[in-house]
């Protein structure tokens, strides 16, 4: 079913808060396990692992060039909402490790849990006219222009990113990480469909 109404300010605020918080929780799980992921977050994770810099600031900076693309090709409101979501995620990933801890977390289950959390987070953000920047912006543009689902576009980028990840992580860690990325993108590809709704 096509979305035919705009969300209210309160609905958008709740959607952005939900998306940013669930995505941040997913990143906490991911980095706790030493895993990697795809998309712009994956690039920031790899930079964080390689340099020792905190994920939050790296993720925020990596996204800066994509805001211009989003502003010019999708619109100012989308870009502002995306900026807010990215800023919230960046901040939450810096404080959330002090709020939650894991006595035991199986890496395979953790990867799948990360995938579901991140997929749900991205769906909420897309539904409320935002993304987590970077590849998400490009993926939505491709979906709107060529009809290729955003999840498949992101999965292609992820394949390249994971090939690079092999230089920083062992094969088993990258394989488990890739499982999480596949779950994220399947959630998006199956549930975020242009013929049902579009970001507004």
From TrEMBL:
Coiled coil: none annotated. The chain crosses the membrane at residues 16-35, 41-70, 82-102, 108-126, 146-168, 174-191. It is found in: Cell membrane. GO terms for cellular component: plasma membrane. Keywords: Cell membrane, Membrane, Transmembrane, Transmembrane helix. It is a multi-pass membrane protein. Pfam families: YitT_membrane. It comes from the Bacteria. It comes from Gemmobacter fulvus. This is YitT family protein. Its main location: membrane.
